[in-house]
Amino acid sequence: MTTSTLPDYREQSPEVAARFERLQQRPVTLEVRDLTKRFATPKGSVTALENVSFRVHQREFTCVIGPSGCGKSTLVRILAGLETASSGEVLVGGEPVSGPGPDRGMVFQGYTLFPWLTVKENVMFGPKMAGTPDFAAEREARQWIEMVGLSKFENAYPHQLSGGMKQRVAIARALANQPRVLFMDEPFGALDAQTRCQMQEYLLEIWKNVDITVVFITHDLDEAVFLADRILVLDPNPGRVREFVEVPVPRPRAPSQLFEPPFMAIRKHVDGLIHPPGSEKKEAPVVRLAAPDPDVV
Ligand code: ADP
Ligand code: MG
Description:
By secondary structure, the chain is an alpha/beta fold. The protein has helices at 9-12, 14-25, 72-80, 119-129, 134-147, 163-175, 193-209, 221-227, 261-274, and strands spanning 28-41, 44-57, 61-65, 87-92, 95-96, 104-107, 181-185, 213-218, 230-235, 240-246. A six-stranded mixed β-sheet has the order 6-7-8-3-9-10, sandwiched between helices. A four-stranded antiparallel β-sheet has the order 2-1-4-5. A hairpin with a 2-residue loop joins β1 and β2. The longest helix has 17 residues, at 193-209. The chain starts with 8 loop residues before the first helix and ends in a 23-residue tail after the last helix. 35% of the residues are buried. The structure holds adenosine-5'-diphosphate and magnesium ion (MG). Adenosine-5'-diphosphate is lined by residues 39, 41, 46, 48, 66, 68-74.
């Protein structure tokens, strides 16, 4: 594994380079050492992840990207303690992970709110389970609900909310447990393109205001570049670390940056890692139902 080799951005953007230097000096919040995961299937053993190692620093925003089936969900499930590794180690704040714990929060793509609880009750759930008295849990829940901009909806039920609002509640609910790391597995994957962009901006706003380290899984390159400090690129079959790339796009991020040279350069670089030359898809066979037309090509 290498750390990024994008053309001389350090000279072009000393401020961005200085920020990365500072980030690297922060304590390591998440350390993954030589993680391998094999699944036993009726057809034999499938290696989903092989010797995956990387480190994430406090309050860093990391995106994990790679083609479907390369082991992204398996990785995040192991990090969250929902799945065991075949070998290797995961450390959060220097402590080995051996199961789910309140130091790690999770937001999935599917809406996982309790449908019979209101927004406020959903967010209070974690703190209450941890023994926080009702009045304090309610006060905390209100604070998180306000942070995700849903104060007017605290007494609404999940079915009364849009997809984007539900995911904002899911984020509030995860943060209410005050985790050190927030794992997000394609959390905006089911949203329409416009809502998805709004959610990305929301998430960055939340991240600015909370002491949280984010590991965000996506297969959307623009989303990864827009959000991340660094992008962990995984190769498929078996999932291995291809590169851990620094994203030299200045912060604060804004959608207008999507069309600026630093964004396009990093996007192209990561795209090249995911789709190496020669890996172009063969054309899908399509039954011809009309005569060839030189103007329709
Ligand atoms: P991604 O999230 O990147 O699409 P996954 O982590 O879901 O990839 O899957 C990685 C690989 O591991 C795939 O080949 C998948 O079929 C396999 N896999 C995942 N979960 C299981 C399981 N419970 N049993 C067997 N194989 C699995
Ligand atoms: Mg997945």
